[in-house]
Design brief:
- It is a single chain.
- Helix content is about 10%, strand content about 30%.
- The protein is built from 1 helix and 12 strands, in the order ββαββββββββββ.
- β9 and β10 form a beta hairpin.
- It is globular, with a radius of gyration of 28 Å.
- It starts with 15 loop residues before the first strand and ends with a strand.
């Protein structure tokens, strides 16, 4: 018995496929464009669903809501005025060299006992947010942050060492469009 043979649709006239082994040899049968479109749609939907469920939780951050929303399970640690420029002062109270940077920027060094400074602008109308990454160069030392905000909108962050089994270790600061400061 002969197996059906299909020519690529691009070579078949008028989007039709030629089959052999059908009751009428050489008969041109309609290859429905609708079937092909449905297959591509189903495949794209499947990829979208699987891709959405496999995304790591950190990438699922959203702009804050009106309520006391938590970002990545962290409570609000401080609040700044998002309508004004924000000065972030980092105080390295460890005995290790630290690296710090705004998201998508190259890291800067912060020696033990030193203070570094960053400027952020968070616009509440546009949903702009600010992220600052802070860690040791090899990410080998656990850290914790303490926050204080003064009336000049300066966010002071004291960076201290902590135990390896401390569940409140920090590696980043996130400021949402409402000025709420989170550490995780």
């Amino acid at each position: 018995m002969l197996e059906p043979t299909f020519l690529p649709i691009s070579t078949a006239p008028d989007c039709r496929a030629i089959t052999s082994g059908s009751p009428a040899w050489g008969q041109i049968t309609e290859a429905s464009n609708w079937d092909l479109t449905m297959n591509y749609t189903a495949l794209a939907t499947l990829v979208w669903i699987i891709g959405g469920t496999l995304a790591p939780p950190a990438t699922l951050s959203e702009p804050a809501s009106d309520g006391p929303r938590l970002v990545t399970g962290s409570p609000v640690r401080a609040t700044v005025d998002p309508g004004r420029p924000i000065v972030v002062q980092l105080a390295n109270e460890t005995d290790r060299l630290l690296n710090y940077a705004r998201a998508n920027e190259p890291p800067r060094s912060l020696p033990p006992g030193a203070t570094g400074q960053l400027f952020l602008k968070v616009n509440p109308r546009r949903g702009e947010t600010g992220s600052i990454l802070i860690n040791t160069p090899a990410s080998t030392n656990p850290l914790t942050y303490e926050f204080h905000v003064d009336r000049d909108n300066v966010l002071r962050v004291s960076i201290r060492p902590t135990a390896a089994d401390d569940p409140h270790q920090n590696r980043a600061i996130f400021i949402d469009e409402r000025g709420r400061v989170y550490a995780f």
